[in-house]
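Human: My hope is that you can spare some time for a protein that puzzles me. I am handing you a single protein, as its sequence and its fold in C-alpha cell form. Could you go through the record with me and say what the backbone is doing? Take your time, and here it is.
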Amino acid sequence: MKYRYDGVLLDIDGTIVDSNAAHALAWVDALAAYGRRVPVDLVRPLIGMGADKLLQSVASLNSESGDGKLIAEARAEIFKRHHVPILRPTPGAERFVQWLIRSGLRVVVATSAQRDEVKDLLAVCGALDFLDGATTSDDAEHSKPDPDIIVAALEKSKCEVNRVVMIGDTPYDVEAARRANIRTIAFRCGGWDDEHLGDALAIYDNPADLMECIDESPFAVAT
C-alpha cells in the first residue's frame, strides 16, 4: 500500500493508552495531599494540555516552584505507583502500533507526558519501538496546546510538513498541530466529541475503528 504521508507524530495518553481518567485522578489526589480540593470534573477536561498549564488553570500555581512543583512531583509518583500497573491500551491500539511498525512510516511520539513516564506508557500497548524517538514536555519550552512539542517532533521525523500527520485525542493535540501547519487524525476514545475535535482531518472512535477502514483513511493515496 502506498501512503499519503511519510511520517506520523503520535500522541500517547488517550490515543493509544486509556490513561486520561487516571491522569485526572492522580492530579486530584496530589492536589488534595497539599490541601487543595479540586473536583475531578474540573481537571478531566484539561488532560492533554501540559502539566504547567493544567496546574496554573486549576490552582494558579507554577509547576516549577513552591507547592506547584511539589504537587507536580506527587502527581507523577501517584500516577506511576497506583495507575500505571492497571492501564490498558485503547481499543485496537496494539494492532495499530504493529501496523505503524510494519508500515515503514517514520513514527515520532509527540506527547505532553514527562520523559520518565513515556517508557511505562509505551509498554502498555507494545510501542517501545517508538521510545528512542519520543518528543516529550522536556523537549519543548511551551507545552500543548502551544505547538513546540509538535515542531520538535516534526524536526525529529525529518519529514516535510505536508508529508506528516498528527494522531491524537484532544483539542489540544489538534490545536498544537494546526499551529504547526500539520493536520490531525483524531480519536474519540480520549473522551472528546466531534464538536471539540472538529478541526481534525478525520475523526475515528479509536485505533480499531481506523484500522477497519485504513485503506479509505487519510493514509491512503487516491487512485
